[in-house]
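re: ur msg from earlier - yeah i can do the heme C complex, just paste it... oh wait u already did. ok heres what im feeding in:
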Amino acid sequence: MELDITSWLSMAIRWLHLITGIAWIGSSFYFIWLDNHLRKAKDEVDTAKGVSGELWAVHGGGFYHKQKYSVAPPEMPGELHWFKWEAYFTWISGFLLLAVVYYYGASVFLVDASKYAMAPLTAVAIGIAFLIGGWLGYNLLCRSPLGQNNVAFGWVWFGLLTLSAWGLSQIFNDRGAYIHVGAMIGTVMAANVFMVIIPNQKKVVADLVAGKAPDPRLGQVAKQRSLHNNYMTLPVLFIMISNHYPQTFANPHGWLILAGIGAVGWVIRHFFNLKHRGETRYGLVVLAVAGYIGVMALAAYLRDQARSDVTVDANQVSFTQVQQIMDKHCVACHGTEATHELFDEAPNGVIFEAKDVILKYRDQILERAVVSQDMPLGNETGMTDEERATLAAWLKKTETD
Ligand code: HEC
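and the outut:
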């Protein structure tokens, strides 16, 4: 019986991560939406009790009437929902997934010897250092005078994340670099909930129960962190799926592409935040679409610039040569008997042994091993430009045969 435990484990964790992430980001979107749609309370009895805003909604066959007390209700309700486990479990499952996929498989998912030869454990330590360092740096910035100015703070934080993406892309393989920027953002978001938002809310509740007036700064600081989290959601969601799109990360300047897409996500979020408040600015939508197209063009241009000028005469290439190249660089993973330590079965069941299968996957092979070059994964076998060009020449030749 063959059982690929790691793959089953990573599937369960990824599923959990997706579910908790939806719950967290969903509730975060909902509360920002709610806050932006509240209207001044009309009933005098309510306003006298301290209700600052209210909203009516209909959903799933019932009517909801929500009221917001800007400071606190006169009496603490017996049952109060906090919304924190969604965030904690998203981080925990995310970190486990990072460990199972990227740390356990560090030799191919993190290390890229052509950029920087290092032991897998060193790579793991650097990755974790970025997660911790990211939070420490972010938190210091928030507490510094810069934290008072949302716009300036946004630019500086965006710059620091881009710098981290650049730094990580110099030492890690492309996927590893991307996912660590995502994990840095996710860590900051979860730590905001764990270290600032929830503790501040607890202090406010404790003060109220003790009959003391809570310090309004506690609420202001929590609200600011919650706003930061809101703007970081779309970029981090993109990084979560980026793994499936080598045209982004597998680029000589993947960090620049990431910065571009991150900015597009930020603009989209900004559009919705303004719209909820009744300020619809379609110019932002145009900017986001133009930005996305710009990123596409930039990715293609940068890749073109980096293309190797090795040329191979297609007429001199035989299938035997192609087979030798694939035996050397692909079959350890994409083989009937996958011999690679991290893969018991060929990834996606894709096996490059028979000629007809290789031809069937012609376009995908060209895309992954010649254009984006994210295959062989981790390039442990050191596939050369010459070999890639040989493979390309043969694949293109058979297209016209
Ligand atoms: C260290 C293991 C490893 C090696 C070596 C490797 N691959 Fe892959 N390959 C993977 C994994 C894992 C996936 C699935 C994840 C993904 O698509 O990124 C994959 C996916 C692919 C796909 C997409 C398959 C699909 O479902 O459409 C192609 C094409 C591919 N590899 C081509 C190659 C070629 C060509 C080589 C050799 C030049 C190669 N790979 C070497 C691990 C490897």
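cool cool. The pocket of heme C is lined by residues 108, 329-330, 332-334, 340, 343, 347-348, 350, 361, 364-365, 368-369, 375-378, 383 (CB under 6 Å). ping me if u need the other ligands too
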